[in-house]
Design a protein that fits this description.
Strand order of the largest sheet: 2-1-17-16-14-3-12-13-15
Helix content: 10-25%
CATH topology of the largest domain: QueA-like
Largest sheet: 9 strands, mixed
Number of helices: 7
Number of strands: 17
Structural class: alpha/beta
Shape: globular
Amino acid sequence: MNVRDFYFDLPQELIAQDPLEDRSASRLLVLDKHTGEIEHRHFKDILDYLKKGDCLVINDTKVIPARLFGVKEGTEAKIEILLLKRRDNDIWETLVKPGKKAKVGTVISFGEGLLKGTVIDVVEEGNRLIQFSYEGIFEEILDQLGQMPLPPYITHQLQDKNRYQTVYAKNEGSAAAPTAGLHFTKELLMKIQEKGVEIAHVTLHVGLGTFRPVKVDEIEAHHMHSEFYIVEEEEAKKVNDAKRNGGRIVCVGTTSCRTVESASTEEGILKAGNGWTEIFIYPGYRFKILDCLITNFHLPESTLIMLVSALAGRDHVLHAYEEAVRERYRFFSFGDAMFLTDQRDRDTVD
């Protein structure tokens, strides 16, 4: 299967640069994964498509202000780093720009010495291992010096850091937000629970590997970077009970999807535990847990549009994307949402 099979043309002006004032006011394209039928709604209407007995799976990871700007000691050359994953206490794997200025032994100063980092190794794809030194609490210093790691296609300055967090974000560790969850408000989640829908929390700390371009022609040769996930016993039971009782498992975002699919058995039982996943889902994959998916609109030729195509079929998905472009939907992280479902199973929508 060729990466070009997942290309679509997207006008630049449809890339959302700012979040809406009301999270749940974004638009919602509802796609029947079997027939390709499309409906145009608003996100708060998701309530009409969820049924008593369903289980909504959300990723409660929290984005850290992972982008730091510093200077190389001795030369005052400017260096930007992005924290990717914590390897061991104060040692982080990072993406450094420009990398040529960050050889092993380089010391980088942030906030006029409030935080210092020493490059101790060069690892896969040129990423740097950096050991940090500081006085106080690392997370507090990071909150003071760091910026939210917005994707490069967002050029506007984010006025409120919390708008790149879900309202249920709890466990710190992500370098990017699970953006499908950005549409939920606490009030909407409460209404969903009142309808009899169970909400299960999982954690997957989102790295940049999910968003890296596929650099091979044949997608089967693409290798995903690993990301750390956690599934607690009580949350796994919620999913398994809903599945056993005939409810649908509705994942919020590709990260929740990748978590439950990574942590489940071939028989479709979600297992509690934690670990690293490199799962790459593309057409031909057989879903073990997930029934429906809430997701944003993704980049052309990305692993994320491949995952969505695995659930609803490439032709249906690309047709829906073409329709979204015609209807002037907003794309990517701060954009509108899709709900991939089987409309024969849902409640009647007024």
